Amino acid sequence: MKSVASSRGPALALLSRSAAAILGGYALTSALVVFLGAIIPLPKGQAVLAGSLASFAIYTVAIVWVFAVRDLKRVWLGLLLPAVLFAGLGWLLGRVLA
Question: Which residues in the chain land under pLDDT 50?
Answer without folding.
Answer: 1
